[in-house]
Design a protein that fits this description.
Layout (H helix, E strand, L loop, with lengths): L1 H29 L1 H41 L3 E7 L4 E5 L7 E7 L8 E5 L5 E6 L5 E3 L11 E3 L9 E5 L5 E5 L6 E3 L11 E3 L9 E5 L2
Helix pairs in contact: 1-2
Length: 214
């Protein structure tokens, strides 16, 4: 990611230098009088382009601030309910590491309460079962949702989740591990189904409501 950004920046710099050289040659060819006129026109376009870049930068900064503010509200104990089907993320009974996680009818049980803890990495959180203290873990999870488990918390990549604001006050939940992506369900999901993973297409099934318990 960093190397591609550096390459893009170098390309922009080279393109800018070549554009300036081209303008210099053009002005020499067409003469000073006409150069002044063209320079005024070009200056106006450059000014408009600069204004557009400033507006875009302001909008991006505002969106980033909104995302950070929304994420800041997440720390605490929450129920996590899928927006498409209304089923809640639920840890199996017991406190044994390796217990499975499924989607169940919301009954406000301790197994449906999750402690959201911010990590030292920006935008990343751990989800800990309030009933057992075990962490939601995608280390061995498959795209179909098998092996989405609660394991002893140690903060590995499979236990870290990027939680980002979505529509209508909901959030998306993406595994940081890389081998699986966004936690998903759909409107046809039934009690006991396991959430699965898929790449983001901003479907309703990828949106989760975090209801504060305390």
């Amino acid at each position: 990611m960093d190397s591609s950004r550096r390459t893009a920046r170098r390309a922009q710099v080279v393109g800018g230098v070549l554009a300036l050289l081209g303008l210099g040659v053009l002005f020499v060819v067409i003469g000073l009088d006409r150069s002044d006129k063209y320079a005024s026109i070009i200056g106006a376009f450059v000014g408009l382009a600069g204004l557009g870049i400033a507006v875009r930068g302001t909008a991006q900064a505002r969106n980033k601030a909104t995302e950070t503010e929304s994420q800041g509200e997440l720390e605490g104990i929450f129920s996590i309910v899928n927006h498409a089907c209304g089923l809640a993320l639920t840890a199996a009974d017991g406190s044994t590491p390796g217990c499975p996680v499924s989607a169940r009818t919301f009954v406000a049980s301790p197994q449906q309460r999750w402690r959201v803890e911010r990590t030292k990495r920006a935008g990343e959180f751990m989800l800990l079962s309030d009933a057992s203290g075990l962490a939601l873990d995608s280390t061995k999870a498959t795209p179909g949702g098998e092996h989405l488990l609660c394991q002893a918390a140690f903060g590995g990549s499979g236990q870290r989740w990027h939680i980002a604001p979505s529509e209508n006050g909901n959030f998306t939940i993406r595994s940081v591990s890389g081998h699986v992506e966004y936690l998903s369900l759909n409107s046809r999901a039934e009690d006991g189904w396991r959430p699965w993973f898929k790449s983001s297409v901003e479907t309703v099934g990828q949106r989760w409501h975090f209801g504060r318990v305390r």
